[in-house]
Amino acid sequence: MIAFWLIVAAMLLGALLCVVPPMLRAPAGSQGTAHAMHAALAGLLIALVPASALTLYMRVGDPAALAIQTAPVASKGDHADAPVSMQAAVSRLAARLRDDPDDAQGWTMLARSYMALDRPGDATEAYRRAVALRPRDAELRADYADAMASANGGDLNDATLKVIDAALALDPDEPKALALAASAAFDRRDYASAMQFWERLSKVPDLAPEIAQQARKNIDEARALAAKGSVAKAASVEVRVRLSAELEKRVRPTDTVFVYALADDGSRMPLAVRRLSANQLPATVRLDDSMSMTPSRRLSDFSRISIDARVSASGQARPASGDMTGTSGPVSSKDAGVIDVTIADIVR
Question: Which segments carry the TPR repeats (predicted)?
Fold first, then answer.
């Protein structure tokens, strides 16, 4: 059994290492090489390494948003066989679990692999199976909650909060559960609770220094917002997204839709991002300051923005040939009303 898992892990890791985005590879001999490779590998391996060892879900940068901002479209030949190898390894693992459904370790690895492939819906189901087999594993429950939120467009709803609460009941110091609980409180403008969770997170034994530092920054941010009484001042925009009649038949219900706000300064770093499924269109979504990736770039910091929407058949945040897009063009972030975005163009 151990040998089998070593083989599966090696296959999955090998496939992941093959798909390091070219943009993250620094030129040979440059001072940034080690840092670029480290950043790339950290993002790719997070699904296969216990989440508490790496950056957590705590507003240090949404991977989807980071992928959206960069965006040269890769040629069809670039690493063409790497995703296939990854998919094949995951498919073999899923097939094996059909014959051995009581393998908790297998379900856990399958769930993390699905998250690496940006398939949070499938990851949620795999985590559910793993949690049923290991109900006392707090870290596993926290990962389950993270997958549930990802599958629901980042929404930490009541069902997800129950899983987070269960994880913290098992282990009050579970890092990802604390980070998720803090983010949920922050999203509902309960800054006092958010600060309490982040304070607990910052004091978790053996926590990575960068995570503790980010938790303290988040505490300062929440304290400042609470002091300003900024609920009314926080910027938000309502976005109505639909498909053009010409493209409706080309979209599959399971395709992923990214809706995101961009500043008028030319940066591709989104100010806020929501993820939907194509079967939810047409839809009206809200983008607001609570979805910012960094405190220094919020909707409220820019008077002019644009709203883009993109359908990704692959489910990946990085734009690719064949994706379908639409944009609002420049609009006011203050008095825009409901912003209409029609997805009518195809990325060539």
Answer: 104-137
